[in-house]
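Human:
I keep going back and forth on a fold encoding question. Comparing notes only helps if you start from a blank page. Show me how you would write down a chain together with its backbone fold. Write it directly below this note and I will take it from there.

Assistant:
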Amino acid sequence: MKQEITNFEGLLCNECASRLSEVFGMTKAQIQNGGMKEIVWKLQLAEITMKEAGVQFDQKLLVSEAITAVNEAWVDKRLQEQDNRYYEELDKKDDKINELKIQIEKIKLETIKQTENELKKEYAEKLKHHDEIKHKLLKRENQIENLTKELEAYKSKEKLQPVKMGDKLEDIVADALKRAFPMDDIIPERKGKNEVDIKETVRDGKKILGKILVECKNTQKWNNNWIKTVLAHGKRENTEFLVIVTNAIPNEKFISPLGLEKEGVLITTPDKSTWVVAFIRQAIVRTSEAINKLENERERLSRQAEVRQKLLKMIKSDDFKAVFSACENIQQDVQEIRNRISKVKVEIDNSTISIEQLVKTITNTNTKFSEAFERLIV
């Protein structure tokens, strides 16, 4: 067994005459205080001194043992210091970890609180937005309800509105026609749904030549039922001259500058209505003149035919036969008178007849002529 040397009381250093125990004691103190360089130097110096002194114990130098012990103590110290530093670092890391945990918890709490606040704020905003939407929806529902009521009211008024608008257009057209044709009777009816808007009676003095019916529609959309309505008015008024005045001209392939014709009804715009009525009126006047000529000619031919019939009837009648016989008798009487006149001339020439006989003969002849003509006339 190796014998550890722990007592250096009697040993001295050859160089410095210092006791080794003091060196060792100082070494232990310095080890505890951390002066490693100084300790190593002193120990090496002690080792050299002991080698020169020839001091050996169990074939090993005391200084080497001391150095080994110091080194072991130093290693232990270093290990202890490392352990202490390790544990200190662990403690620091634990503290850091705890601090981080605390910070994490704090951040977590702050995050949770912030998230909660944000959620509350978002919820409040959504709730506010929901309330706003609800308010807007309620407002929109009220608006829709009001608009529905207004629409219903408008629909009810709309049924009367075309009539009022038509009345305005009717007045404009009627005034224009009155200015253009003051000789005619132009009457805005306005008596009801089944009455025409304007009725123009075309006159030639006191004589009525015809009628023109004008229907006014002050709307923007064409309605085919207008044709049926106007045709019904024309049938009731016994006239074929029908006009619709409107800006809602139907879409047709051919439209003349003055409008168009559809099912016998002329369709035109308000600014051209007077021209269209003027053409219709001129046609009525000329047609009336032609009819008058035909009627006059017909009357003349009728009178001629009547005269012929009367003559034929008279010729075939007994009276005519009597007249014809009377005429024949007159011719005989005339011949007889001629014979007498010739005889009288002979007698006058022969101076064998008196003036009184001549007057008497002429008077008798006139009497016979008068009787013959009276019979012919009767």
